[in-house]
Amino acid sequence: MPFPPVGIIGSVFWKEITQFDLVDSMSGKAIKSGIFLFFICISNQYGQKFDSLALTSPMGWNGWNSFKCRINEIVIREVADAMVTNGMKEAGYTFLVLDDCWQWGRDTNGCIVADPDRFPGGMKKLGEYIHSLGMKYGIYSDAGTSTCRGRPGSKGHEFQDAVTYASWGVDYLKYDWCSHGTQDAVSSYRLMRDALYKAGRPMVFSICEWGKNKPWEWGKDIGHLWRTTPDIIDCFDGRNIWGGMGILQIIDRMAELSSFSGPGHWNDADMLQVGNGKLTPDEERLHFSMWAMFSSPLIAGNDIRHMSDETRSILTNREVIAIDQDKLGISAFRWMKTGDLEIWVKPLDRGDFAVCLLNRGTGTIPFDQDLKMTMKNQYKLEDSYSVRDLWKHMVVGNSKEHLRGSLGPHAVMLVRLTAKTD
Predict the structure, then answer these.
(1) The CATH number of the domain covering residues in 333-419
(2) Which one of 119, 122, 184, 225 has the minimum C-beta count within 10 Å?
């Protein structure tokens, strides 16, 4: 790759020196003339992220859970069209994120190149199409030498790739952690943060290192969201051989991390499995409810071109989405656990609360809760709160009364407590 006479790549300064002689140390005679690059490491002056982004957790679509590597320009355009026509965009799903396998290689200058067979129109034109529909354009790369499916990673090309993404109009970067070798996670993600900032186009930066290095402890100043777990699997309760987690396993991990999440820095419980065929409708409602309680990004992962009315009704439930997008950005905490019954509480803006009752087990569980007593150790509830069931879309009582009912296997009840006004 030809270099200009002076410049900066990442945190490296180079200067081209011409007409130099290599001198034999014994004889003092010149033995070779030529040109060399003189490199000096300097401190990076771009140490920040774009702070005004992701003040509520991102919402959108990523095709990995349903398509894996089977993505192409036609599929992405069809998904974009579907998001506009089926109510997803109107409900708040604005990011359309391409995951792994869009890459093909690098050109002779080291620039990343999209697969010409799958994306013949090019990535810039694809982004322009997504933007023309009023949505935002997301893309995927990896901090290592290659992606999880063996495509070129960004290691050694961070600033070059950031400039390329900016030129394509990218709004969101998911940055994975495969093929990282002995790399330090904090340094690797900080380097790409700096590259994105220097490229000059505001992008949401999604740290996807699977919670291996506790990104909740260091990610706030680097990214806008960070994965807390290995990949989600389409399973309510279980793990697979490579560590993928089911819904309950992720819920249990998230229970420990609520204090680290907030506007501009979110715990990411991974993409949604709603509509991918393995979860029951009750399990899907529980899954969606808890991601909203966590203020986790809501990134749909199903084939939304061909989803059922029931799947669409879950993904576009405005009342549940409002819990996720509440501007306080507080992540719920597990208030109590009795056998398979759990109660989670999330403070909301304007003094409201979200309360989620869930059944982890395979039998039916009755409940009879005095919400004022349940929450009295930390919050004082007056008698004037109405209690609205967000899946039935109806008021089911008030804080003066007990909340009674039963939950079937893997079922959920999500209510919003709203103070009545005169």
Answers:
(1) 2.60.40.1180
(2) 184
Catalytic residue annotation: 176, 231
- The low-confidence residues of the chain, meaning pLDDT below 50, are 1-46
pTM: 0.89
Helices (H) and strands (E) in the chain, counts: 11, 21
Task: Compute the Cα dihedral for 380, 386, 387, 390 and give only its sign.
Answer: negative
Q: What is the pLDDT of residue 383?
A: 76
Q: In the CATH hierarchy, which fold is given to the domain comprising 59-324?
A: TIM Barrel (3.20.20)
- Contact in structure between 243 and 225 (CB atoms under 8 Å): no
Give the per-residue pLDDT at 422. 57
Backbone angles phi, psi at 215, to 5 degrees: -65, -20
User: Cα separation of 24 and 20, whole Å?
Assistant: 13
Least Cα distance to 165 among 188, 145, 195, 191 occurs for: 195
Beta strands at 394-398 and 385-389: parallel, antiparallel or unpaired: antiparallel
User: Residue 73: CB partners within 8 Å, gap ≥ 6?
Assistant: 118, 119, 120, 121, 126
Domain ranges of the chain: 6-41, 59-324, 333-419
Q: How many CB atoms lie within 10 A of CB 218?
A: 16
How does DSSP assign 89-113, residue by residue? HHHT--EEE--TT-EEEE-TT--EE
